[in-house]
Design brief:
The protein is α/β, with parallel strands linked by helices. The protein has 19 helices and 21 strands. Helix 17 packs antiparallel against helix 18.
Length: 525
């Protein structure tokens, strides 16, 4: 099967100047990239010709930080991703991956609730079999999550791992990497990774490094102790030699916004010495995670089942409410996201302060506990604790790559009932808009969304338009490439992407999903 994309403005992903020309695709590869002046002297024959006059032809975008592992099985068309031009996702982030899953290990509440009886795998190799049967529309690079490893071995107890447990985690990580894992990720503010020592993480990083893997981390702090958290990452890199990525770089909380100069200096100093690769960021100032992160540490130990049991105990619940109310938190900056119970659906898209003003809940703590109890502690939330100025300063750094920090979504089916962060649908157009507004050239902006991500993670023959590369590409209109998703109405597709191609297959064209899917589980070479 040959496809000719004719007369487009070719932006090849390297940062080189654009040119008019044709791209010839044969099966899953780019057979040739031909400037317009050379096309005139050739006779090109293809099974299909796509007129790209007046449009950009570029590599498909690579999402540097995602959580679609489980949802690729549920909604393999990946609608929110391919409609914004994403052709490859870096999954298993923030310490949470679909595998390996043993012992007490539970997938995140949203994954587990929707997967139901489709959750049949334990090992990474078993997950790969299920994924292959689903035939996803996008490529996936799969990391192994520390929280998944730890809960498989230690469970959710708030304690250090024993030497024997440490060895078991190392064994599971090594096996998962042999089965296709690209490295290790941590989520050190989440259960149960928050209970780990730096030595535990360092030992696991050594295993990943020995197998040529990378390390990406949601650090122990992105606010009050962010500088100390960065030091922990640098110390790990120095001790193990592993290449490190700091996930979704931010300075959280107004009192920490002034630390950005020191944050950037630390990171760039470590980069200059070869210890850090850089970072990724979504182009929004609202963070998205679970509402139960506002629980005091002791109340969150054990995850959702243990939290629900504590809320059912009137004495313990009173203590939780009191400690939440004692927090120095502006509740007008905390918006309820996805909810699960009919009584909590009306809360989605409203801040805790707004809900309090319309209800008779006695305090923020009591309202939060009421919502979490009904949702079985699975409620999502958005936290507006970041600075627009700092976001622009972060995005101005050429080593910042676009990462949605989001699972794929769809406006229909089991995923349509959720209330996701708009980044699930709109990270790429908003990243492009914001960096272009800073004066970054079209070509360099696209390079950061394509070849730069591929180079950082070692993804070969993707992120560029050149002969022999895989045919992951887009036809799109920069003038209409815009986000439509909002915090209040998130299930809205990006405009401006006319065609998405993955490994020579077209899953999305002119606003329609073709249900033809060519995504692959990518192997680390």
């Amino acid at each position: 099967m040959t496809t000719l994309i004719h007369n487009g403005t070719v932006v090849d992903g390297t940062g080189a100047p654009a040119f008019q020309g044709d791209v010839l695709v044969e099966n899953d590869r780019i057979a040739d990239v031909i400037p317009a002046e050379a096309v005139r002297s050739l006779t090109l024959v293809a099974d299909e010709t796509i007129d790209a006059t007046g449009k950009l032809v570029s590599p498909g975008f690579i999402d540097a930080h995602t959580h679609s592992d489980a949802y690729l099985v549920i909604e393999p068309d990946a609608p929110s991703k391919i409609s914004q031009g994403i052709t490859t996702e870096i999954n298993g982030q923030c310490g949470g991956s679909v595998a390996p899953r043993y012992g007490e290990a539970r997938l995140s509440s949203d994954w587990a609730s929707i997967l139901g009886d489709r959750l049949t795998w334990r090992s990474l190799s078993e997950y790969r079999e299920v994924l292959a049967a689903a035939r996803p529309a996008v490529n996936t690079v799969q990391f192994v999550g520390h929280n998944t490893l730890r809960s498989s071995v230690v469970g959710y107890a708030g304690r250090a791992a024993t030497p024997d447990e440490q060895k078991k985690m190392e064994y599971l990580l090594a096996r998962a990497m042999d089965e296709g894992g690209w490295g290790l990720t941590t989520g050190l503010i989440y259960q149960p990774g928050k209970y780990s020592t730096p030595a535990e993480v360092e030992a696991l990083a050594r295993v990943a490094a020995a197998k040529g893997g990378l390390y990406a981390t949601h650090m122990r702090s992105e606010g009050d102790r962010i500088l100390e958290a960065i030091d922990e990452v640098i110390d790990l890199a120095k001790a193990t030699g592993i290449r490190c990525e700091i996930s979704h770089l931010k300075t959280s909380g107004p009192k920490n916004w002034g630390k950005l100069d020191d944050v950037l200096a630390k990171i760039e100093g470590a980069m200059s010495e070869g210890y850090l690769l850089g970072s990724d960021r979504y182009p929004f100032c609202g963070a998205g995670t679970d509402l139960d992160v506002v629980f005091p540490d002791w109340a969150g130990e054990g995850g959702c089942p243990a939290e629900c049991a504590r809320l059912a105990d009137p004495v313990v619940r009173t203590r939780i409410i009191a400690e939440i109310d004692a927090q120095d938190r502006d509740w007008s900056t905390v918006m309820i996201g996805g909810t699960w119970h009919p009584d909590t659906k009306s809360c989605s898209g409203k801040t805790v302060a707004e809900i309090l003003a319309s209800r008779k809940a006695s305090s923020p703590g009591s309202l939060v506990c009421e919502i979490l109890e009904k949702d079985l502690c699975r409620t999502g939330a958005f936290f507006f604790t970041m600075s627009e100025d700092n976001l622009d300063r972060i995005l101005a750094k050429p080593w910042i790559l676009p990462g949605s920090d989001a699972s794929l979504r769809a406006p229909w089916g089991p995923l349509g009932a959720d209330h996701p962060h708009p980044r699930a649908y709109a990270t790429m157009p908003e990243f492009y808009r914001r960096v272009r507004a800073q004066g970054v050239s079209r070509e360099m902006a696209i390079a950061r969304m394509t070849s730069a991500v591929a180079a950082r993670f070692g993804i070969r023959n993707r992120g560029v338009l050149r002969k022999g590369a895989y045919a992951d590409l887009l036809v799109w209109d920069a003038a209409t490439f815009r986000m439509k998703a909002t915090y209040l109405e998130p299930h809205q597709f990006t405009s401006g992407v006319l065609l998405t191609m993955v490994n020579g297959i077209v899953p999305y064209r002119n606003g329609e999903f073709t249900h033809r899917r060519g995504g692959r589980f990518l192997e680390k070479i």
